[in-house]
Design goal:
With 131 residues, the protein is mainly α. The protein contains 6 helices and no strands. α3 packs across α6 and α5 packs antiparallel against α6.
Length: 131
């Protein structure tokens, strides 16, 4: 009889241990954005008071990095996105922020510099003015 109680206690204890470990793993892996500083602290790393973030500067960045052949010019329209006019760029500001600033998946090949990211960030944060 005592042996049966010990086995019952032992399997109950193992069940609790495995349940605890499973919950701990789920909680530990649920903290996914720890490496996405822009998601955790939006706008915290850029001092926009020291940056000239006009559409003229943004357009220069886009012309050199995004509106190239095979990418986001009218002839290619990669992903059905054209970034040649102010209205086109303004309409895609959220996607530009996500892909170029947060995810850093655009542009492929030649990444944006820190100063280019700062200009785009400040321009988008200021409401995408046409200046």
């Amino acid at each position: 009889m005592n042996k049966q109680k010990i086995q019952s206690f032992s399997s109950s204890s193992r069940w609790k241990t495995w349940t605890f470990l499973a919950i701990a793993i789920v909680l530990a892996t649920g903290c996914y954005y720890y490496d996405k500083e822009a998601l955790l602290y939006p706008n915290s790393t850029v001092d926009c008071s020291k940056i000239t973030a006009t559409y003229t500067v943004v357009k220069s960045i886009l012309t050199n990095k995004c509106n190239t052949a095979g990418c986001h010019n009218a002839a290619s329209a990669a992903g059905s996105v054209v970034l040649e006019t102010y209205d086109q760029v303004k309409a895609m500001a959220g996607r530009i922020r996500q892909r170029a600033i947060v995810d850093k998946t655009m542009p492929p090949g030649t990444p944006l510099t820190t100063s280019e990211i700062a200009v785009l960030t400040c321009w988008i944060n200021s409401g995408t003015p046409n200046n």
